[in-house]
Write a structure and sequence with these properties.
CATH architecture of the largest domain: 3-Layer(aba) Sandwich
Radius of gyration: 20 Å
Structural class: alpha/beta
Order of helices and strands: HEHHEHEHEHEHEEEHHHEEHEEEH
Low-confidence stretches: none
Strand content: 15-25%
Helix content: 25-40%
CATH superfamily of the largest domain: Type I PLP-dependent aspartate aminotransferase-like (Major domain)
Oligomer: single chain
Distance between the termini: 35 Å
Number of strands: 13
Shape: globular
Mean pLDDT: 95
Strand order of the largest sheet: 2-8-7-6-5-3-4
Number of domains: 2
Number of helices: 12
Length: 328
Amino acid sequence: MLEHGGQLRHAAKSYHISLEKWVDLSTGINPNGFPIPDIPSKCWQRLPEDNDGLLTAAQDYYQAESLLAVAGSQAAIQNLPLLYSHSKVGVLHPAYAEHGACWQQAGHQIIKLTPETVDAYLTQLQVLIIVNPNNPTGHLFSQQQLLDWHKVLQTNNGLLIIDEAFMDTTITNSLSHLSPQRGLIILRSIGKFFGLAGIRCGFVIAEAKLLNSLEKKLGVWSLSHPSRYVATHALMDTHWQQNTLKNLPKQAQRLQKLLYSNNLLVSGSHALFHWVKTPTAKTVHQQLAQQGIWTRLFTKPTSLRFGLPKDESEWQRLSQALFSLQES
């Protein structure tokens, strides 16, 4: 099992700090997510129904007609490798590690790439997986760059998979509105921007044939009725979306200034997180954890990811904890 952000109960046990006293900055999930509406009792009593409005809401939000709702984009990440014969698969590093792990487990050959080395290996690949914006580096690929790579891959019937889990704040770089196209799969998530990781809802945008094959692999009722209900409301609430799009960049800028003022130089950014590459990452991670601040530690390369604090109290706790590092 790969390590991920969160795991707050493990942190509480390891550092002997009760669960409610932690500030969790480890996930990159919007800490002020979409407010959950009242869920009708029928949602808990009836099986999920495909004609409940979720598909229409998602088609409108993502500007894509051909899509499939799944139990978080992770469900697609785990099952897509099972639909293809053994291939050479290019994956970004560092990036969301589940992509490479799942394809490797399914018997595919993995080639680790950076944004700068993709072109050199592209003609050797049957599958290229791009996380855009990348997690944890924040690197953002342009539409044209991705379309150029897709064109090259198509000369050998190759496949381009784009994980757009963090795309909601940089929507002009999305390719969802250009789908469906042969050999193009786009993954979207409700968990990050909407702050609804717990409902396990995501979408696969691709050709209908591929979606049918994936749906058969996943089986019926992969997404619960309450999850579908909440996701539909979130996708339709344009007022909340617009306010959040205005507020997140301000919060991101505040976090960046705070990190810089405490000698933590930001190596990559997104509206929901900042990535700090430093040889002292493990020490900083541990020292912050001792004060109840939980960050995401990476070892290759040695780095930290900081998500956004939820409220002013958490901002002050982070500020004081970072200041204490300078005095130690």
